[in-house]
Write a structure and sequence with these properties.
6-stranded antiparallel sheet
């Protein structure tokens, strides 16, 4: 077993977007000066899209017991700007937690939100698996049919697709997700594995919106993954018993002074043309 712990490839420099002001976000998370402006549940094996305004706080909780959630994010007014899972994984870690940020894709490359609350922070299973997964992605009907030979319309990819249709988006807008509450890792052979969700009714995952967001969340048809398996009948009683709703709560700060000095991050400042020379008209 290797004991060396290599230096991360990406490190925060003072004043950069990776250099998180922990005191600021701790004040936001702990403040009692917040009002609940929206609350709803997402039923099992379904999805819902919703807006979170910049400066607001969104909490995803497992009030009914352990359940995985697949999360997509877009800039509210520009769906071309969307969550970039792989870059977030590089900039922070394979399993995100408090004070990590979820980043948008090129050419925007900016924090979309900052995680300010995670009751499962520090969780590790007996083989090193961690929670809030960025190693994998959403389950989908294409892989399911390829591996099992069966069609099923309520995978997370399909749930997210249905959820965003009323917002003018389509299947092609669904992208790699953050698997909230999902425990995963890599085994000795570097292969991806999944373990049952450890969340309890008191657990939650909370983020602060850095820009105006359109969010979509799917309640995974695998539930808490305690009875999951390829080719298994998704309607089997043991599979259904491990599926539960997820609760969404959106909070707005009453004391706006808490936001003093904060502003949304601008899009990436790179202004080049990738080394391309623009043609010049010559009469």
């Amino acid at each position: 077993m290797a004991t060396r712990n290599p230096t991360p490839a990406y490190q925060a420099t003072k004043g950069s977007p990776l250099d998180v002001n922990k005191d600021f976000y701790t004040r936001i998370a702990s403040s009692k000066s917040k009002e609940l402006i929206e609350s709803f549940e997402i039923p099992i094996r379904s999805g819902k899209a919703f807006h979170v305004r910049k400066g607001d706080v969104c909490r995803i909780s497992t009030k009914h017991g352990p359940q995985l959630g697949d999360l997509n994010l877009w800039a509210k007014d520009n769906p071309r700007e969307r969550f970039w899972a792989s870059r977030t994984r590089q900039l922070h870690r394979s399993h995100v937690t408090t004070f990590d940020r979820l980043w948008s894709c090129l050419p925007y490359l900016r924090p979309m939100c900052t995680i300010i609350g995670d009751t499962l922070a520090g969780y590790r299973d007996d083989v090193g698996g961690r929670v809030h997964d960025l190693l994998g992605t959403r389950c989908d009907p294409y892989v399911n049919q390829m591996l099992s030979g069966k069609a099923f319309d309520f995978h997370c990819h399909s749930n997210l697709t249905r959820a965003i249709l009323p917002f003018g988006l389509a299947e092609s807008d669904v992208h790699d997700v953050l698997n909230v509450f999902q425990v995963t890792g890599l085994n000795r052979d570097g292969q991806y594995y999944m373990e049952p969700c450890p969340a309890k009714p008191s657990d939650y995952f909370e983020f602060f919106a850095e820009i105006d967001l359109l969010c979509a969340l799917s309640t995974c048809p695998g539930g808490d993954l305690s009875a999951w398996g390829w080719g298994k009948d998704p309607g089997a009683d043991d599979m259904l018993r491990c599926c539960r709703p997820l609760t969404i709560e959106i909070f707005r700060l009453i004391d706006r002074n808490l936001l003093e000095g904060w502003e949304s991050f601008p899009a990436a400042s790179y202004a080049g043309v990738h080394g391309l020379m623009m043609p010049t008209f010559r009469p």
